[in-house]
Amino acid sequence: MAICVAIIGKDNSPKYFACSNPDDEINLQYKVLSSLDVIEEKLNTANKVTDFRELFLGTLYSLESHKIYGYVTNTKIKFIIVVDSTNTALRDNEIRSMFRKIHSIYADNICNPFHIPGEPITSKSFHDKATSIMFGTV
């Protein structure tokens, strides 16, 4: 179970943010936005080493209370998931699966003719699907 899901645009502007505890939202936003530096570093290193890259970046960094994972699309849209570090049941393949599902619903959302490109995601159906993925009910 994730405690936070965030989607960051290619210009590092937040497009979507959801967390399980609204009282901890500011703290989680800080952690998510600070992880963007790690993503940029991993992308720059990966581009110099190889021409192809894996979308899943793995663990960006681990804190006492949280683990932060990253995923980047070919169009430089960044997906970030924060999980509780006491949750040892989650493995990398389950995190990958969560990212694939979020990427899929993101693609469905931006293909909507009523979605304005570059604007934050405000769709209720997207939020419902993202939170169900976050809580592991899908």
TrEMBL record:
<keyword id="KW-0931">ER-Golgi transport</keyword>
<keyword id="KW-0813">Transport</keyword>
<dbReference type="InterPro" id="IPR006722">
    <property type="entry name" value="Sedlin"/>
</dbReference>
<dbReference type="InterPro" id="IPR011012">
    <property type="entry name" value="Longin-like_dom_sf"/>
</dbReference>
<dbReference type="Pfam" id="PF04628">
    <property type="entry name" value="Sedlin_N"/>
</dbReference>
<protein>
    <recommendedName>
        <fullName>Trafficking protein particle complex subunit 2-like protein</fullName>
    </recommendedName>
</protein>
<comment type="similarity">
    <text>Belongs to the TRAPP small subunits family. Sedlin subfamily.</text>
</comment>
<dbReference type="InterPro" id="IPR044760">
    <property type="entry name" value="TRAPPC2L"/>
</dbReference>
